[in-house]
Description:
Blueprint: H1 2-22, H2 50-66, E1 72-77, E2 82-87, H3 95-109, H4 114-121, E3 139-144, E4 147-155, H5 159-170
Antiparallel strand pairs: 1-2, 1-4, 3-4
Amino acid sequence: MKKQIFVIALIAAALLAAGPGRAQQPAPNPRDAIPDKMPFDVPYGPPISLERAQAVIGAAVAEAKKRAWRMNFAVVDSGGNLVAFARMDEAQLASIAVSEHKARAAATYRRETKVFENGIQNGNPYLVTLDGVIGSRGGIPLIENGKLIGAIGASGGTGSQDEVCAKAGAELVK
């Protein structure tokens, strides 16, 4: 019996001694990483003109027509101010404001709105606390000669449909 108590005491002492030092450490939080460079650090350029904004929308509308999608499109300047808007016949009315919101978020944060969608889906819910964020793809910055001149937002279909049309419009600006 003394031998059993001794063995149990020995095991307990070993567990106590090893416990704190061998405890599993939590995985590092990737949001604690400090990047060397600023992400999405695109300099601002001159604001997009009305003529160019209408051409961007024209290309997006052409893509939507080709696919028989009814969409809304908004183009904002580099400061997020509305420059041009188009609603295709029978496009969803709720998507008017959504297209503007996507364009404004893409210009304000200098990144595609898909970045917010991915971040929220991958466990970064704090993104929804940022002013003006929309976690839905279809907002694309308009970058010319490496500078932000505005953004296009598309809404009316699924996020992937919105993104396809917005990118078709953004292709005019490079």
